[in-house]
Design goal:
The complex is a heterodimer of chains A (about 110) and B (about 120).
Chain A: E1 4-7, E2 10-13, E3 19-25, E4 32-38, E5 44-51, E6 57-58, E7 67-73, E8 76-81, E9 90-97, E10 103-105, E11 109-113
Parallel strand pairs in A: 2-11
Antiparallel strand pairs in A: 1-3, 3-8, 4-5, 4-9, 5-6, 7-8, 9-10, 9-11
Chain B: E1 3-6, E2 11-14, E3 19-21, E4 23-26, E5 32-38, E6 44-50, E7 56-59, E8 62-65, E9 75-77, E10 86-93, E11 104-105, E12 109-114
Parallel strand pairs in B: 2-12
Antiparallel strand pairs in B: 1-4, 3-9, 5-6, 5-10, 7-8, 8-9, 10-11, 10-12
The chains are: A mainly beta (about 110), B mainly beta (about 120).
């Protein structure tokens, strides 16, 4: 199956700093990428959808200036958490779609803000 | 809008027991249906899929049949193993090819298998 690589898998940062998470589709071109935040007890919250070369579409309640998404190429999207605070600590997951209906997921990034 | 409803967990079973995790959906068109599995500390992995009515998706002993008449896509396995312990997500997606067809996920069902 298609492979999506997400990096880093874990990151600890100080409050007030910024963190960048990368999501790469390794063996297919990702026309659309999705960023999720996963809360305790499993539920996935869609944060934004991005198409290559255009601005991301953010879900209601997600701050665009705080969660910067760049989908610069058909194989790479990045999520930057700016001025991170402890309440931003969470598990962030990206997924990507190519030519089919299914989405393939990265391994996730555990962000801890101290 | 689209939605996916799956049974609340956790589901706790003994090894070699039969597994069913129920999933029903509502959709405006003709969606593709999926089951994803998430092991602790990892992202989601596509387990199986079905793209049209009456299709059966299967993988690693798991299977699910796309039932349009009951709008269901229940996940089953005849004999579970301890290594199947994970969270299972039912999902749907409409549209083929590129475009912002956003997948819709259920809330996930935790499966715990005891030796």
């Amino acid at each position: 199956g298609a492979v999506v690589s997400q990096h880093p898998s874990r990151v600890i940062c100080k409050s007030g700093t910024s963190v960048k998470i990368e999501c790469r589709s390794l063996d297919f071109q990702a026309t659309t990428m999705f960023w999720y935040r996963q809360f305790p007890k499993q539920s996935l919250m869609l944060m934004a959808t991005s198409n290559e070369g255009s601005k991301a579409t953010y879900e209601q309640g997600v701050e665009k200036d705080k969660f910067l998404i760049n989908h610069a190429s058909l194989t790479l999207s990045t999520l930057t958490v700016t001025s991170a605070h402890p309440e931003d600590s969470s598990f962030y997951i990206c997924s990507a779609r190519g030519g089919g209906p299914e989405a393939f997921f990265g391994q996730g990034t555990r962000l801890t803000v101290v | 809008g689209n939605s996916v409803t799956q049974m609340e967990g956790p589901v706790t079973l003994s090894e070699e027991a039969f597994l069913t995790i129920n999933c029903t959906y509502t959709a405006t068109g003709y969606p593709s249906l999926f089951w994803y599995v998430q092991y602790p500390g990892e992202g989601l992995q596509l387990l199986l899929k079905a793209t049209k009515a009456d299709d059966k998706g299967s993988n690693k002993g798991f299977e699910a049949t796309y039932r349009k008449e009951t709008t269901s896509f229940h996940l089953e396995k005849g004999s579970v193993q301890v290594s199947d312990s994970a969270v299972y997500f039912c999902a749907l997606s409409e549209g083929q090819g590129g475009g912002s067809y956003i997948p819709t996920f259920g809330r996930g069902t935790s499966l715990i298998v005891h030796p």
